[in-house]
Specification:
The protein is mostly beta strands. It has helices spanning 6-20, 22-32, 55-78, 82-86; strands at 100-103, 106-111, 117-122, 129-132, 136-141, 145-150, 155-160, 167-170, 176-179, 182-187, 190-195, 202-205, 209-215, 218-223, 234-238, 246-249, 256-259, 262-267, 273-280, 287-288, 294-302, 305-312, 315-322, 329-332, 339-343, 346-351, 357-362, 367-373. InterPro entries: 6-blade_b-propeller_TolB-like (IPR011042), LRP1-like_beta_prop (IPR032485), SrfA-induced_signal (IPR053369).
Length: 382
């Protein structure tokens, strides 16, 4: 039998994890280089394969691989990661996300049934078409192009909505917003701006940022606390040219939404809160909107309504309420999702169970339909 190289053994192990535990593999890949890629690209030095790899060496490689995975989770749970942000809520998740956008009455999405590649489908879940083989996240559509991050190489790309003219834009892997002819994105050491054609890269801010939003001709972003500067955490705003940076809130948050001159968020960091809070866009008037905690840490806002997952008597359900925290309505009982995207009158809900399941929820009829799944049809447990 031909002895396998270290790289071949590691590939076998990684492929097995990616196949059998895709949600775990997403966590590993997302945290592998998250916010750490450089603007300049350096090619790694190739490793020469060894011959006649002994059995003891194979065992040590497998053990090292397990230790690496365990280390990632230890750092997440004890070094400022998931437990620090979510406390003891096992269903809370930032990494178990599904990405979907709409343009010209077509949905563009990350197909978790085919290696998280970029696909399109009609609004009812039919006419599926693969557009490219990249592992896509952070999708944005402008009607002509789909902009996305490719986790395979940690770079930003765009591709036409018909799957042609795929182009590399920048060697970064952060959050992205588009306004007029410019793309704004977070990098490993600040916030950058580039033309939509990939030309004219410009650094706007040195603040290490996570979520990035465009609202009322300004950029809003959440700062990430670091070991060297814990005061970096909070919510900021600045002009589109990077000038007049202002910290408007000291509240540390990972994700936030903006609507009707308000910012909606959850509090993470040292002080954990699984409730939805609201502040004015100048940072004043902080208010907790309701006493229900979010079960999975996801919510979306559409037409002055907030859609979220919360539990009552240990049973999670999909709810909506208005942006003032009133008129709470249960839409779907006994239902859970780690990502919620509202498009029109439809709520698209994803959950990583059974390798991934995507539902569409009709908010008027209060009915759900599973439109994409890795679920084993022989298992009748819904």
């Amino acid at each position: 039998m031909k002895n396998k190289s270290e790289k071949e053994i590691l590939d076998i192990l990684s492929n097995a994890i990616e196949k059998d535990m895709p949600d775990v593999w997403d966590k590993i890949k997302n945290n592998q280089k998250s916010r750490l890629s450089d603007i300049e690209c350096e090619m790694p030095t190739p490793i020469k394969p060894r011959r006649n790899l002994p059995i003891k060496r194979i065992s040590s490689i497998a053990a090292a691989f397990v230790i690496i995975i365990a280390g990632i989770y230890i750092s997440l749970f004890y070094g400022g990661g998931i437990l620090k942000m979510f406390g003891n809520k096992p269903n809370m998740s930032l990494d178990s996300r599904f990405y979907i956008v709409e343009a010209n009455n077509t949905l563009y999405y990350q197909d978790f049934t085919d290696g998280s590649k970029l696909y399109s489908m009609d609004m009812n879940g039919g006419n599926r078409k693969k557009l490219c083989d990249d592992y896509v996240v952070n999708l944005i559509a402008d009607g002509e192009y789909i902009y996305y991050q490719n986790l395979n190489d940690q770079k930003q790309y765009r591709i036409r909505t018909d799957g042609t003219k795929r182009e590399l834009l920048a060697n970064v892997n952060g959050d992205v917003v588009i306004h007029d002819e410019f793309i704004y994105f977070t990098g490993n050491n600040g916030i950058y701006k580039i033309n939509k054609n990939g030309q004219g890269l410009e650094k706007l801010s040195d603040v290490l940022a996570n979520t990035l939003r465009f609202y009322n001709e300004k950029l809003y972003f959440s700062g990430i606390p670091t070991n060297n500067d814990s005061s970096n955490g909070g919510i900021y705003k600045m002009n589109l040219d990077g000038s007049n940076i202002q910290k408007i809130s000291d509240q540390t948050t990972h994700d936030f939404k903006m609507s009707n001159n308000y910012i909606f968020f959850q509090i993470y960091g040292n002080k954990i809160s699984h409730y939805i809070y609201r502040i004015n866009i100048d940072g004043t008037g902080m208010k907790k909107l309701l006493d229900k905690e979010l079960t999975t840490g996801t919510f979306d806002i559409k037409d002055n309504n907030i859609y979220f997952i919360s539990s009552e008597n240990s049973t999670p359900s999909l709810y909506k309420m208005d942006i003032n925290g009133a008129n709470i309505t249960k839409l779907i009982d006994n239902f859970e999702a780690t990502t919620i995207n509202v498009i029109g009158n439809t709520v698209y809900c994803y959950h990583p169970s059974y390798g991934g399941r995507l539902f569409k929820v009709d908010t008027e009829r209060k009915a759900k339909l599973e439109i994409l799944t890795n679920y084993n049809k022989n298992n009748t447990d819904k």
